[in-house]
Amino acid sequence: MIDVLVIGGGNAALCAALMAREAGASVMLLEAAPKEWRGGNSQHTRNLRCMHDGPEDVLVDSYPEEEFWQDLLKVTGGITDEKLARLVIRASSSCRDWMRKHGVNFQPALSGTLHIARTNAFFMGGGRALVNAYYRSAENLGVQIRYGTPVHALELDGDRFVAALAGDERIPARACVMACGGFESNLQWMREAWGQNERGEWPADNFLIRGTRYNQGALLKFMIDAGADMIGDPTQSHCVAIDARSPLYDGGICTRLDCVSLGIVVNRDAQRFYDEGEDFWPKRYAIWGRLVAFQPGQIAYSIIDAKAVGRFMPPVFNGIRADSLPELARLTGLDETRLEQTVREFNAACRGEHFDHTIMDDCRTEGISPVKTHWARPLDTPPYFAYPLRPGITFTYLGTKVDENAAVHFGGRPSPNLFCAGEMMSGNVLGKGYTAGVGMSIGTAFGRIAGTRAAEAARHPRIHGAPDLEAA
């Protein structure tokens, strides 16, 4: 019998598998996707948010624990478990050497990502390179890897894991780690979770999935029905405003638009609806998908002029270009009169003389709502560009409740041999909101914990918290 069964194939699952194997356990990893699509959402990532008290390798200056915590507190609005969040923060300071040992390399932040050069360590080659490195290391260590093996249910004895069920196959193990993502790719579940709005729309019908199509949430649904303690709002997620022309699945990070803070964003009625300059983009990009989700038709347009060109990471799709605002309105289907009025009012409200996109500058608006707090400059220099935006869901926050040992809870009590890591338990830390790279921090921290604890549970089994007589 296998000691530790890991269900999932992304960063958290691979960290769990590697740690369990290093602890001496025999390990099998079940990845739902075929080999060519392995890695879950991790293949689309590019960095890890890291606490550090001074300059370290690719990280500049310092990013102490309290600042990390305050950043997380701000984006979540306090909907987070501080104990588990601080566990993630502290673990992020010491994981890079272990990652390097398994073939992950880092590089300095690229031009266009300097806002997070201090807080985030970038993977050389991005998430795909990280995933491939981990798979190579797992294979070299003797981890059994099976692709195309989605698990739909578990065999449980009360709160104890017995076996995984994949199709007609039963796969027993002494301990199990679930790290198989959320339910964002299950479009019907997303539709049910979001429901119908006051305009009679089903918002989720207009959502795009930035990541893998294989996160269907089958095991998550099973855990709900099995009575596991759950945490998180099913409508909360890592939800980014991405180019509306992106594919339904696997568009990845290149579909994100980074020009929002350099111009204005209007809905299909050509009206602004939120402060585009509230904070640095890495701290705010993940709120914009949800903002767009509540707009009519779940569509919006990021509009810039020639002054903004070259100041943000080039997107995968070209902007819709026009030499005048009326022409831009016609090309985007916006009302010409309303768009011109919105821009005219915005331009007249702009104040400040020292535009600097690298700091919280004094360029702001006065006398209009919503205000633009920073980086407000008149849109007056053609050509103009518009980028259509739709909500891009990366992963959902509904998940299993865990403790500091990554143990799944039933009725407030931890399972002796069932653990969870990654997106499937991210709601413990992320009640809402997001800040760049923290998903990989959560997956790495809890993946490593879950793998270690699962190996211990396999080696020293306990029955419903009974003393470990075998070890004694």
Number of domains: 2
Structural class: alpha+beta
Unreliable stretches covering 5 or more consecutive residues: 463-472
In CATH terms, the superfamily of the largest domain is FAD/NAD(P)-binding domain
Oligomer: single chain
Summed over residues and divided by their number, the pLDDT gives a mean of 94
What is the CATH fold-level name of the largest domain? FAD/NAD(P)-binding domain
**Shape, please?**
globular
In whole angstroms, the N-to-C terminal distance is 23 Å
Compute the CA-based radius of gyration: 23 Å
CATH architecture of the largest domain: 3-Layer(bba) Sandwich
- The CATH class of the largest domain is identified as Alpha Beta
Number of helices: 12
How many strands, what sense, and barrel or not for the largest sheet?
Answer: 8 strands, mixed
Number of strands: 21
